Amino acid sequence: MSPVLIAALPFLGALLAGLAARAGRTAVMLAAGLCTAAALAGLIGHWPAVAQGAPVTAAFDWLPQIGLEAAFRIDGLAMMFAGMILGIGILILIYARYYMGETEDFARFIVYLMLFQGAMTGIVLSDNLLLLLVSWELTSLTSFLLIGWWRDASEARQGARMALAVTAGGGLALMGGLLILGKIAGTFSISGLAARAETIQASPAFLPALILILLGAFTKSAQFPFHFWLPRAMAAPTPVSAYLHSATMVKAGLFLMARLWPVLAGGWEWTAIVATTGLLTMVIAAKIAFFQDDMKALLAYSTVSHLGLITFLLGLGTEPAALAAMVHILAHASFKAALFLTAGIVDHETGTRRLSRLGGLARVMPLTFAVAAVASLSMAGVPPLAGFLSKEMALEEAAHATVFGLPWLVALIATIGAAWSVGYSLRFLVHGFLGRPRGDMAELPHDPGAGLLIPPMILAALTAMGGILPMQLLAPLADVAASAVTGLPVHGHLALWHGLESAALWMSLAAFGAGIAFLALWPSLSAMFEAAPKLDAKRIYDAVIGTITRLAGRIDTQVHDGNPVRSFALAIPAMVAVGLWAFLGASHLPGDRAVLSPHPASLIGWAVLMLATLIAAIVHRARLFALLLTAAVGLVLALAYAVLSAPDLALTQISVEVVATLLMLLALSLLPRITPAETPWPTRLRDAVIAAAAGIGIAALALSIMLRGPAFPPISIFHWAQSKPGAGGTNAVNTIIVDFRGYDTYGEITVLGIAALVIFAMATALLSNRRALARLRRHDTGGNSGDPHPQIVEIAVRFLLPLALVVALYIFLRGHNLPGGGFVAGLVVAIGLLLQYIASGFAWVEMRRRLSPHALIGAGILVATGTGAVAWGFGRPFLTSAHGHVVLPVIGDIELASAAAFDLGVFLCVLGAVVLAIAALARLGAATTDGEEEEG
Amino acid sequence: MEYLVASAIGLMTATGVYLILRRRTFPVILGLTFLSHAVNLFIFSSGRLKMAAPPIVGRVAESSDPLPQALVLTAIVISFGMTAVIVLMAVGARFGTGDDRVAPEREAP
Question: Which residue among A598, A652, A752 places its CB closest to the CB of B1?
Fold first, then answer.
């Protein structure tokens, strides 16, 4: 099976699980589980090749411009991790099916879980740094959804937010690191990096890249001091904790360090940072784990500690240590997932996870106890379990590491960590399952059904068998993984017994003695721990986040306080200043383009426009008058377009002006007639200065453009030349709109349609708001004449509608060759309809209206989309047009372009949008006092 | 002609800016209308002015620039849509909050 398919199958599983939502929980689980199983089978199918040391690869270009290639590669390391992710994934799916409550939205839960699984699989299979990064971020996002699953609980929300802040923050650092790394290496291919390791490590940018990448790895793998998010993430449902926080996500950081080991390891920086962090994390977390009361918190801190141990091993940078790391990853995944699932069972059956309230469960839940015993003894490192084996290997490596010239220091710290580890493992078992029950349980708990029990049993069996038959079970996988990490063939000899001269044996024994002593001294140690001052990471985190939020809020209210007047008053002078600065900073040639001489009519039009504009600014408080002046300006503008050889614009401007004025008249009937004089004269003066500066600036800019010819040939030369041969129309403006730039137009009519729907929705919301409706009912539109709908107007206007339709048809049909087209035609019909609203009243028209404007908008966009999509049928890109001649009886030969159908879509959409927008306002008018009277 | 167009753009911009700096919704709506006019004319003028040369193939040898015209044509219609949305926001604010101020009353900036 192609590695691409293996990486895609979990996502397919997410899709199928979502689709199976109605078919019940078992169907959802099966849909997801079968996809996971198929991916696992495909993975195992590559085992023979991978075991021979031949990686399996597959790749296709994604965004080659930035070096992003969807490259997948299965080598030993990827095989081991993907095997864990998919294998444990199946067990988790089964467990979750029986764990999640009946009222939960199980399908959605599984969708999230599968998306997460896909992201994880993506990380481990990817052979491209950028692809790895994308998957990495995806795990942060999906784990956020999973941790915050119980979103009613503030604990879950906080935990999810914290996990996201820490891991996504680390993701940002990682992005920086990987980009630097790719830049130094000149490639983003992971398998291509290893050969350039020396060049990379010699680069001055190596250390920053290393630190950034390690920040990403440490945050993800909860290394000190970023360990605090992991225990908070335990607010997630237990299957999530078991999956994300033991077997997979937190191991992504380890995976990354292992994956980049050949490139990054070897120098002193690597060992100094990684080994130290790992060792510190191991000891600190192990101690904290011992004192936790919540079973899951204990396991969470123990996970942090084990991750620290593995980080330490990777940090040592030697082949045997890398092998030990791989073996411990396998061992840890098996026993820790089993323990989480056991904790989930205990929670499920007893209703609590607090060790201080548990105890004595061994008698009532013997099977669960058996699983817990095997797994926690493996965690403690008791022979012959897998945990013993891997811990011996780790201690052996620690025994040979030397720091500060002190050969015993690392060994001592590691032994102390191991002692705490024995302590908390035994505490989990002893306080949870042995002795007498401490809490008062309403009813006696018992072992759960097979669905909850089998997954942890399988894992416990694995951890036991791994220790007993290490060379058969663990060694093959760990060998190929370690070979892939180090780039050298590794053949480890895994055995339980290494003889009495092995240092690890004595360190282990010491750890056992100390661990048992810790447990025996529990009451006094616990009291000491409680009494000691503790650094609460959460409080620090909250303080940091709180400060940032407050600071951002303060800046935000300074810059943007929600008052548009203020924003404009700041932004407009700033824009003028920037324009002026740019103008003064450059050299200019004098404008030498010949100026057109205006004829007298133009001068009159200009004078009218200028006067109306100026007066509008001065008398704007008399709103109706100012509105009429605005309309006059719009009409003069239409004339100007006509004079300046833009007949299409003239037509559009004049029809839009009618509709817009109508709209504002309607609005004015719902708003006060007069703007109160409330700004003092200094403010008015300031505004006038700003306005004058903006006006002068833009006028100067426009003039200097017009006085000069184009700096380079305009692209419209192409449009002009191709209008007839390419688009089959002689009206170049129309062919640009419906053909050359059809995609633009397509977007524009969609926006227009959405705007109209927004208007409709706002009007509806206003009418359903009781207080607003009450105000609306009280509102007096003021100008109610005796007869709002004089009959002579009604009759006259009714004749206009068919006339408008004919004119629109004419304008529409000629549009491709002569001024006109869908926009204008739509506006003309809209005007015809709106006149009916005016003459006969809103209710009268609404009663007789057959076509809903909503449907017109939808039909318009559908027609435009359909026209565009037809091109696909001919193997051409979306919106490619075609044209040809058709001979019709009577009318004769006409040229038809498919763009005309597109223009029909434009027409329908414009018509629907305009009518819907104005009808929405008219509906509000009809709700006022006068409107009511009129209807009554 | 160029001077007429440029001065018209300038004055319409100035009026538009002055009106959008008012405190009530209706002048702001009118201001936006003026600004739309000014911007449309500005974009149109960037194609340079030409008389008696409509961009119809076959009518004239050398036409006015059709591209800015096409852009402005759709812009006119879109500005109408935008104005309509703002008008409804203004009416909604008027009946939702009881007055027609653009921002809650407070100290002048």
Answer: A598
